[in-house]
């Protein structure tokens, strides 16, 4: 079992920045891949960014060049640095971690990000 607690969401003006954190506890030694997803009202949940255990990163086209995913293995924490935010980035952001026994991953409770124009 892995428990995830997200933080760092809030209200920001367009062009501003936020940094989301996701603290993991439990069977953290088995974590393979860590991801950030987001879900805007009335829309499907979408993958935003991925980081593997080896540090390889991937991003959705909509956030490339603006968002940076990182992980601090010593602190068992996943981050998402979001710069040059746009109103269309408004969503609930969720972290997801994958283990060998749970390919679908574990989910955090979500943190709201609201970008005003």
| Sheet having the most strands | 7 strands, mixed
Which structural class best describes the helix and strand composition? Answer: mainly beta
Radius of gyration, rounded?
A: 13 Å
User: Percent of residues in helical segments?
Assistant: under 10%
Name the assembly state: single chain
Brief synopsis:
With about 120 residues, the protein is mainly β.
Topology of this structure?
Blueprint: E1 2-7, E2 10-13, E3 18-26, E4 33-39, E5 46-51, E6 57-59, E7 67-72, E8 77-82, E9 91-99, E10 102-107, E11 111-116
Parallel strand pairs: 2-11
Antiparallel strand pairs: 1-3, 3-8, 4-5, 4-9, 5-6, 7-8, 9-10, 9-11
Structure description:
With 117 residues, the chain is mainly beta. The chain is built from no helices and 11 strands. The strands form 2 sheets. Strands 2, 4, 5, 6, 9, 10 and 11 form a 7-stranded mixed β-sheet that branches. A 4-stranded antiparallel β-sheet has the order 1-3-8-7, with no helix packed on it. Strand 5 and strand 6 (57-59) form a beta hairpin. It starts with a strand and ends with a strand.
List keywords for this structure.
0% helix; 4-stranded antiparallel β-sheet
């Amino acid at each position: 079992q892995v428990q995830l607690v997200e933080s760092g969401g809030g209200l920001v003006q367009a062009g501003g920045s936020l940094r989301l954190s996701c603290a993991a506890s439990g069977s953290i030694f088995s974590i393979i891949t860590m991801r950030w997803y987001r879900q805007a009202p009335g829309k499907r949940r979408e993958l935003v960014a991925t980081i593997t255990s080896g540090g390889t990163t991937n991003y959705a086209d909509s956030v490339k060049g603006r968002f940076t995913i990182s992980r601090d293995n010593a602190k068992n924490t996943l981050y998402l640095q979001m710069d040059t935010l746009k109103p269309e980035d408004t969503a609930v952001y969720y972290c997801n971690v994958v283990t060998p026994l749970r390919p679908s991953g574990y989910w955090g409770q979500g943190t709201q990000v609201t970008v005003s124009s």
